[in-house]
Amino acid sequence: TEHFVKLRETMIPNDFAALYMQSPYVEGGNIIKKKSIKDWTDKKPPELQYCLISVDSALSERDTADYTAVTIWGIFEKSMEDTSGKIHFVPNAVLLGGRRERMAFPDLLLYLKDLQKRRKPDTFLIEKKASGHSIIQELRRQGIPCIEFNPDRDKVARAWAATPIFEAGRVW
Question: Collapsing DSSP states into helix, strand and coil, what is residue 22?
Answer without folding.
Answer: coil
